[in-house]
């Protein structure tokens, strides 16, 4: 286990996944803050911390559940046509459905952030919250909604890294815990950074589209899909790491140029 966690693939997956978990958690932080700000001042910090801890617990529970389904690799149905062969398993279905969901959710989120940047926040801010328990209950629901794309991203980034599925699960849990701890400790600086650089969140959503496409091809590969006699191969995760690193490098150059222009 320890040897696996210190391999280059595991370290790259952990760093990338932690970064994406933080970027994806920004909306979660915004809604938690809106809910917390409706409480008396002495309860706001407590509500925010409890909300993020609940997010961590929920995501770990969901990780165990999704990981169990991912572990069901045996095909239960085979599609055999003259031009198509697919051995359908629960693992392939979860990955395929997760990939479609990530592409749809990311595209929708990008559209909303560009066309209607404050739509969801304005609707949520109208909801009344009278007590700490009520705030935590609403935060719990928000956490669950925002956990779905987070969990699917974790699965996409770690699936296939190790033959022992439990090792991948441990890596996902570590990334979730680190990202939540960072968000608890630096919630306000992170919010300010994203507020000043909204392109970072759009970039994170664009990464999810790549991960969604990777999950779909992974599902096709694991179900031994053959199209016109050609078997669908998996996309090496190194391509994804390079795309993310290159995009962040370009974004960093943009930050430097903007900063120099202001000076």
From TrEMBL:
Family: Belongs to the TerC family.
Record's protein name: Membrane protein
Signal peptide: none
Protein topology in the membrane: Multi-pass membrane protein
Compartmental location: Membrane
This protein's UniProt keywords: Membrane, Transmembrane, Transmembrane helix
GO cellular component terms, semicolon-separated: membrane
Entry's transmembrane regions: 12-35, 47-70, 82-104, 135-157, 169-190, 202-219, 239-257
């Amino acid at each position: 286990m320890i040897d696996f966690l210190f391999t280059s693939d595991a370290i790259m997956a952990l760093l990338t996944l932690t970064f994406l978990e933080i970027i994806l958690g920004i909306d979660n932080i915004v809604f938690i803050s809106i809910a917390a700000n409706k409480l008396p001042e002495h309860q706001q910090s407590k509500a925010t911390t409890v909300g993020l801890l609940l997010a961590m617990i929920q995501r770990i529970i969901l990780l165990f559940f999704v990981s169990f389904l991912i572990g069901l690799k045996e095909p239960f149905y085979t599609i055999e046509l003259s031009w198509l062969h697919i051995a359908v398993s629960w693992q392939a279905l979860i990955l395929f459905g997760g990939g479609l969901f990530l592409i749809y959710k990311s595209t929708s989120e990008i559209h909303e952030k560009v066309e209607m940047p404050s739509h969801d926040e304005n609707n949520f801010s109208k909801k009344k919250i009278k007590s700490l328990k009520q705030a935590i209950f609403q935060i719990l629901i928000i956490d669950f909604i925002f956990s779905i794309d987070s969990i699917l991203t974790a699965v996409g980034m770690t699936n296939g890294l190790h033959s022992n599925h439990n090792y991948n699960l441990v890596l996902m849990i570590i990334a979730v815990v680190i990202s939540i701890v960072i968000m608890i400790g630096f919630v306000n600086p992170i919010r300010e950074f994203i507020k000043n650089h909204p392109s970072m969140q759009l970039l994170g959503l664009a990464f999810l589209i790549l991960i969604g496409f990777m999950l779909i091809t992974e599902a096709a590969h694991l179900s031994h899909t053959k199209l016109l006699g050609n078997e669908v191969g998996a996309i090496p995760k190194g391509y994804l790491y390079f795309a993310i690193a290159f995009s962040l490098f370009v974004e960093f150059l943009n930050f430097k140029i903007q900063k120099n222009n202001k000076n």
